[in-house]
Amino acid sequence: MRSLLAALLLFATTCCAQSGGSSTLRALYVEDQRDRGVALADDGVSMLPKEQADKLPSYDWEKDVPKRDEARREQTRTLLAKPGHSGEDYYYAAFIFQHGQKADDYLFAHILATEAVALGYSRAKWISAATLDRYLQQIGQKQVFGTQYQGENLAYYLEHQHDPDVVEKFKKLSDQQTLDPYTPQLIPDTIRTEFCVPPLAMQQQHIADVKAGKAKAGDLPRLQNCAR
User: Fold this and answer.
1) Could you tell me which residues come within 8 angstroms of residue 35 by beta carbon, excluding any fewer than 6 positions away?
2) Contact residues for 27 (Cβ-Cβ < 8 A; gap 6+)
């Protein structure tokens, strides 16, 4: 009887710890997305009705959002230092660190997303690919999935940041959105789609539409029936 009671107590403690972690990290993730104009409901999946979305506070992108991002990362680190997290927890945490300021933030985000997938939370596949691309870009390497758009000037700077003349060259480049620097042939479409990333032909059409002014870089093409 004692062993049964102990097992039930352990289960209840683990259950509550994971549920609490998920609810808190989900709230931080929802806040992170709302700061970026995505009117997520509290469940982290559905969208708020327009009348509720219109009442959400807005923050200055340059002044307020970076400070709020940093506070969320600090709170997330504190939560992650405790044991008993689920794949869902790591999924939310990955998004929070993807909006970091340095390469280590993006690398940590990728590790978190990878752990989420390893724990069976398949919704984290896309953020696993996106965080890898963002980390590679930040260290001056070519992305491999093609999830990250940026201005041609910033792309050039990241790839050639150790060139002493990069600042002058940087000034002459436009902020036209691009996937470069990019190694598009490294990953076949069969694997791209496993990670909820569109096939190469769809990516190429989208970037052509962006350059022609027919689409916005932020309106990324998505695969049907692929949750992310």
Assistant:
1) 59, 65, 68, 69
2) 42
Residue 9 — very low, low, confident or very high, per pLDDT cuts 50/70/90? Answer: very low
User: Judging by beta carbons within 10 Å of its beta carbon (0-12, 13-18, 19+), is residue 134 exposed, middle or buried?
Assistant: buried
- Are 195 and 125 in contact, with CB atoms under 8 Å apart? yes
What are the CA-CA distances from residue 188 to residues 73, 89, 121, 180, 223 (Å)? 34, 29, 23, 18, 16
Residue from 188, 171, 177, 183 nearest 211 by CA:
177
The model's pTM is 0.83
Determine contact, residues 87/120, Cβ cutoff 8 Å: yes
CB-neighbour burial class of residue 100 (10 A; exposed 0-12, middle 13-18, buried 19+): buried
Write the pLDDT tens digit of every residue in 65-101: 999 999 999 999 999 999 999 999 999 999 999 999 9
Phi and psi at 176, nearest 5°, equal -55, 130
Q: Please give the structure tokens belonging to residue 41.
A: 């409901």
